[in-house]
Amino acid sequence: MVPRRTDTWVVIAAYNEGRVVADVVAGVAREGWSVVVVDDGSRDDTAVHARQPGVKVLRHAVNLGQGAALQTGIDFAIRQGAKYLVTFDADGQMSTDDIPVLIEALQDADVALGSRFLGSVDGATKKRMVLLKSAVVMSNRLSGLKLTDAHCGLRAFRAEVAPKLRITQDRMAHASEILRKIKSSGVRVVEVPCTIKYTAHSMAKGQGGMQAIRILFDYFFRAA
Amino acid sequence: MIIRVLLLLGLAASGWFIFLKRNRLPFHIVTLFALLGVGAVAVVVPETTNEIALLVGVGRGADLVMYVAIVSVLFVLIHYYAKFVDLQHKVTQLTRELAILRAETEASAKTATTTSQSD
User: Fold this and answer.
1) Would you list the domain boundaries of chain A?
2) Cβ pair A88, A12 in contact under 8 A
3) Topology of the domain comprising A5-221
4) What pLDDT digit, counting tens, does each position of B67-100 carry?
């Protein structure tokens, strides 16, 4: 049986994405998925741009970080009766074509993770690719999983396993936290190829080498 | 002599602040109070620090005071860091609840208007 698209909630965390969020949100909503955008206390007009017919917009009164924003969206979607959840980036580097592939993969898995390295990466610099590759090695070390990609923001999971994957890392360490919880809770996980298109905008907002240190610090010393 | 008065005043002021801010006495507060007391003793009778230092195998009283102070301050620092992380989680929960509640009340307010219009 093909699940109804409205049972799948796409959670988009957005922080100061006023310039691009409208197109991203419209693109996802057009495909018939339910959409919740969490404006993570942006200082720009992100919330205004996200507000579109059929799209739920939540607003954090203060900026908490991507991890916190995703979990807020997940909590809300589950209260709205979501059966499947997808995390999607607000900066326009992901393709909505990958969403049905992820949901399809959930027919025999609890979690489906998008993998740039099974799919394709467009527009990334050499330096960024090296950084990403080393993140994969580091991430597999930390989580104990054997994955081809580490911190691709595109994921889908069944609502039943959401409590097991609950994000307590408010900022960027949530990506590693989710992987750790996938491993420790023993949920079924698959990787699905996805396409990531880097743009000048998303590259500027992306995580640099210095942020990696911050993420590691959070991961080890800010655990709940 | 002036330094002794200054140090004692400083210790007393710290104690007063701690007491003013909290009137419960958890472990880290007890630690702070103990430090203040020991500090006062060290100021009034500095020779005792030398004796204790020699007893535990430290060359000088001043060195012992420094070691104890550093370790204690570190303890208190870590305690407050843990508190800070805890507090941050609470802020997250509050912000999250607020965001969800606001979206839900907005939705139900909209339904209420449409219902009243159709009446």
Assistant:
1) 5-221
2) yes
3) Spore Coat Polysaccharide Biosynthesis Protein SpsA; Chain A (3.90.550)
4) 888 888 887 888 888 889 889 999 999 999 999 9
